[in-house]
Backbone:
């Protein structure tokens, strides 16, 4: 009985509260069902004088599989699933390693996964989320909650318009910056 | 008729004052003694100790296997699809880390933990087998930097960023490769160990180590396996996913569970049934206590005499020996069954004493030969059996008559002589026995004679399906069979490591020739101090490395300070103290090293394991040339088992001849001895035919038991001259003996455990056959009347 009352109160409170920007954005992303997109990545590494550029396709297969198919500078496929990152080179050689060993990659994969499936709860669990802009043009600033991830990543910034993710910026603790621009698949 | 009515009026002849307490006190004492024996007996449970030949290598190996493998569980998550199986296996591995009794759990994706990785990375230049001086030339470094740039641009960037800049030469990769091949398993395309399932689905495999206190099965391991199953129920996503468990710890737990399940129910059933039979036959529950006294004392004396001689007792010997001592149940039954009511203690002994003594002497001669075996388990078994037989006989002869007489125990009547005559008239069916024998011989001949099955694994009371599952998971995981191992001995760990390093080129050559697969040795994981100092001397100093790097970097987009951490690490490695085995403290590293580098008596031993040995002979010769001993463990085990059985068989044959001689000496009646021998031989022949002609070690033990009790039957049937009343008493007593044995062992035929089933089947057939042949063939030579 008591439990039912609490549930009822919660339901009323939820119903009364205006949906947050994050919820609206996520609902739009979930509705768009964009599971496969094109990407262009530009990395500014502290140790390099020039940026590294690559492009290809990025896809998400529920429940937890992300594939990054790089076309340039050389064909390669990165798969993230089941707590493991696997890299398949063009010559067929395969290398795998536990995601736990590369927290930065784990965090980025988590952010992409949650965003492409419109899962606000998963995003909030891993990151402190700061929302900017409007549902039409929005920006989400993600700060990692886990210490292991926070030791590697300062912030992930997601930019988008409506139900479309446009750009991902990753800033790591070594001073490296990575920008992934997302466009239509192809 | 007169004898019959006399015996029926006999109860009145019993002493007016029946005193039960001496019997009950003796029973209580015997029971207490047995409980003490069970609690205090130093019992060994390692199967390999059974093959202990005093050879140091075998002993060391037995200990290694007991320690290293006994707590291992192989598990598989089975699902229709590979992804689902892998996801659930990952969840299960994570959940198991928190489960009580589980030391570690991995599905192949966890690898080494951060603590271990951190240490290996810090000490990579000293530990790496791939640090060569030419790795630090500007040319080599140029190649490394180019490759690194390529990796930074590609999917492997996170790795290159984390490790590559500090380790462009790849020293750490080589260290990881040496340590990472933990179980020789191959990673699937997406990580984790996966294999196809029998039914068409997929299996994701896990390796689970129970905490050391859980090894060797038992209740604790069983409870942990239950917790593992519960964790799976939590982790799984759908009903069509299944958990399969195997591995030594699971087998041990299943074995003890199977035996317990079988034994608990059956021992209750057979105890009740035998008790009912004996109480009905002798009209007093006290008879149970009387029969128990010599049997319990036999067990105590047998166990302690064996321990006194050998220091300890193997569990398998204890089981087999106790089975053989089952024949001593006949002693008190023969005594009480032949007692006339009201007879004073000496009366029964005077009538059956000579035959009884002949029975004991025959059995002791028959089994005594084994006591002199040079193979320890066989000698233990012989000692155990003879000590027990003699103890039971002495207790029956010296202790029991007085106790039994005081309680007035005995059969109510000898039996109806008309029935006796009718039964005795069946002896004219003797020609039918011949037909039976010819048929039995025919069956054995048709199956190609008597064969021995010496597979020791078959002694383990584990269902065949589980053993097959274990073999499949082992193959899929590439888990090293406790198979072929080479031993490198040394006075201390460093000398072992140095010898292993000198052995390395030979092993590489043997691998190239296809003689062996991958060889694993401790020196690959932690090089000797000497080797590490040589590496340190060859590492370039900061100025030289800086110059080489500058040259290597020219024209590449790296900033000038990009490799500063690398420079610092190399400089640190040049002056750091070398790594000793004891410095590898993280549990995952220490556990792995402890499998390969072990203290052995005064010195140390390095174990070299091979994932495949194609030509054991060539390997053994090559290693011998290098002064390293090679153990073909599987072959050695088979050979030792075969030697043990051949030895036991020879001694049994000698024992059989000894038994015949004992009979001749004791009875001085060649015709009677011939009849007894004919009865025993016939019973054994029919039994061997009935069990199919292939004999396991358990069969051999059961046949000894059968021979022992058939001697009893034949000796007592062939007694003469005796009157009708005594003959009737003998017939009924032997029928009681046989019925009790048949109940006890017949019920074992219901067991799922192969070992117990074999025992039950063999003895049941042997008892029935023995009773029939003893009755038909071993008739009295001089009958009275």
Residues:
């Amino acid at each position: 009985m008591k439990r039912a009352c609490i549930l009822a109160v919660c339901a009323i409170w939820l119903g009364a509260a205006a949906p947050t920007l994050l919820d609206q954005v996520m609902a739009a992303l979930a509705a768009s069902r964009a599971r496969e997109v094109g990407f262009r990545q530009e990395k500014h590494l502290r140790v390099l004088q020039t940026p590294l550029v690559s492009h290809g396709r990025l896809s998400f297969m529920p429940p937890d599989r992300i594939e990054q198919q790089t076309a340039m500078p050389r064909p390669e496929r990165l798969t993230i699933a089941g707590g493991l990152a696997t890299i398949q080179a063009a010559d067929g050689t395969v290398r795998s390693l536990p995601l736990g060993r590369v927290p930065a990659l784990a965090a980025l994969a988590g952010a992409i996964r949650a965003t492409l499936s419109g899962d606000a709860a998963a995003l909030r669990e891993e990151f402190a989320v700061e929302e900017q802009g409007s549902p039409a043009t929005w920006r989400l600033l993600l700060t990692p909650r886990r210490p292991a991830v926070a030791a590697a990543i300062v912030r992930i910034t997601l930019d988008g318009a409506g139900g479309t993710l446009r750009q991902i910026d990753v800033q790591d603790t070594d001073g490296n910056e990575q920008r992934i621009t997302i466009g239509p698949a192809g | 008729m007169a004898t019959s009515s006399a015996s029926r009026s006999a109860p009145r002849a019993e002493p007016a004052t029946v005193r039960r307490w001496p019997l009950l006190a003796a029973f209580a004492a015997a029971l207490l003694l047995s409980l003490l024996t069970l609690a205090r007996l130093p019992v060994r449970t390692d199967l390999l100790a059974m093959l202990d030949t005093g050879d140091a290598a075998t002993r060391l190996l037995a200990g290694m296997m007991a320690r290293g493998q006994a707590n291992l569980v192989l598990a598989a998550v089975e699902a229709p699809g590979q992804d689902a199986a892998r996801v659930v296996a990952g969840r299960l591995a994570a959940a198991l880390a928190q489960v009580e009794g589980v030391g570690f759990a991995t599905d192949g994706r966890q690898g080494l933990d951060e603590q271990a990785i951190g240490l290996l990375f810090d000490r990579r230049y000293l530990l790496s087998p791939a640090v060569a001086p030419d790795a630090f030339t500007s040319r080599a470094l140029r190649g490394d930097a180019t490759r690194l740039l390529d990796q930074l641009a590609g999917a492997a960037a996170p790795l290159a960023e984390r490790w590559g800049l500090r380790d462009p030469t790849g020293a750490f990769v080589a260290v990881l490769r040496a340590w990472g091949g933990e179980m020789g398993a191959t990673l699937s395309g997406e990580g984790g160990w996966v294999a196809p399932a029998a039914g068409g689905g997929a299996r994701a495999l896990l390796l689970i180590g129970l905490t050391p206190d859980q090894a060797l099965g038992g209740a604790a391991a069983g409870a942990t396996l239950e917790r593992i199953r519960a964790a799976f129920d939590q982790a799984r996503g759908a009903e069509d996913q299944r958990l399969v468990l195997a591995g030594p710890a699971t087998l041990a737990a299943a074995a003890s569970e199977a035996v317990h399940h079988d034994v608990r129910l059956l021992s209750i059933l057979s105890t009740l049934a035998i008790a009912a039979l004996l109480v009905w036959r002798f009209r007093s529950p006290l008879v149970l206590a009387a029969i128990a006294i010599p049997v319990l004392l036999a067990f105590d004396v047998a166990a302690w005499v064996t321990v006194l001689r050998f220091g300890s007792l193997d569990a398998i010997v204890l089981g087999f020996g106790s089975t053989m001592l089952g024949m001593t149940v006949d002693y008190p039954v023969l005594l009480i069954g032949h007692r006339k009511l009201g007879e004073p203690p000496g009366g029964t002994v005077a009538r059956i004493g000579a035959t009884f003594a002949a029975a004991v002497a025959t059995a002791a001669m028959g089994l005594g030969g084994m006591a002199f075996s040079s193979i320890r388990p066989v000698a233990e078994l012989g000692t155990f059996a003879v000590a027990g037989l003699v103890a039971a006989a002495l207790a029956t002869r010296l202790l029991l008559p007085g106790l039994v007489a005081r309680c007035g125990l005995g059969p109510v009547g000898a039996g109806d002589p008309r029935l006796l005559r009718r039964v005795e008239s069946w002896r004219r069916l003797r020609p039918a026995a011949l037909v039976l024998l010819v048929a039995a011989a025919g069956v054995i001949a048709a199956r190609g004679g008597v064969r021995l099955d010496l597979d020791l694994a078959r002694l383990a009371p584990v269902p065949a399906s589980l053993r097959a599952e274990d073999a499949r998971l082992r193959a899929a995981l590439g888990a090293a069979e406790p198979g072929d191992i080479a031993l490198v001995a040394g006075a201390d760990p460093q000398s072992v490591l140095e010898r292993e390093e000198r052995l390395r080129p030979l092993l590489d050559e043997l691998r190239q020739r296809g003689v062996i697969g991958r060889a694993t040795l401790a020196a690959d994981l932690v090089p000797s101090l000497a080797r590490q100092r040589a590496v340190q001397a060859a590492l370039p100093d900061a100025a030289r490395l800086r110059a080489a790097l500058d040259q290597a970097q020219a024209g590449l987009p790296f900033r000038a300070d990009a490799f500063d951490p690398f420079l610092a690490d190399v400089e640190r490695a040049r002056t750091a103290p070398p790594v000793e085995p004891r410095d590898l403290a993280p549990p995952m590293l220490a556990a792995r090293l402890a499998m390969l580098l072990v203290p052995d008596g005064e010195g140390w031993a390095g174990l070299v394991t091979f994932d495949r040995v194609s030509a054991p002979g060539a390997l053994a010769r090559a290693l011998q040339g290098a002064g390293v001993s090679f153990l073909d463990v599987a072959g050695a085990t088979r050979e030792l088992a075969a030697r043990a059985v051949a030895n036991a068989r020879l001694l049994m044959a000698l024992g059989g001849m000894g038994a015949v001689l004992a009979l001749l000496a004791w009875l001085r009646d060649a015709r009677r001895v011939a009849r007894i021998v004919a009865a025993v031989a016939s019973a054994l022949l029919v039994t061997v035919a009935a069990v199919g002609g292939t004999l396991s070690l358990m069969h051999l033990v059961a046949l000894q038991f059968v021979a022992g009790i058939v001697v009893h039957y034949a000796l007592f049937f062939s007694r003469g001259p005796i009157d009708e009343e005594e003959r009737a008493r003998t017939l009924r007593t032997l029928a009681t003996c046989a019925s009790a044995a048949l109940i006890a062992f017949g019920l074992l035929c219901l067991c799922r455990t192969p070992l117990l089933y074999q025992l039950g089947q063999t003895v049941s057939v042997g008892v029935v056959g023995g009773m029939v042949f003893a009755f038909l063939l071993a008739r009295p030579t001089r009958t009275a009347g």
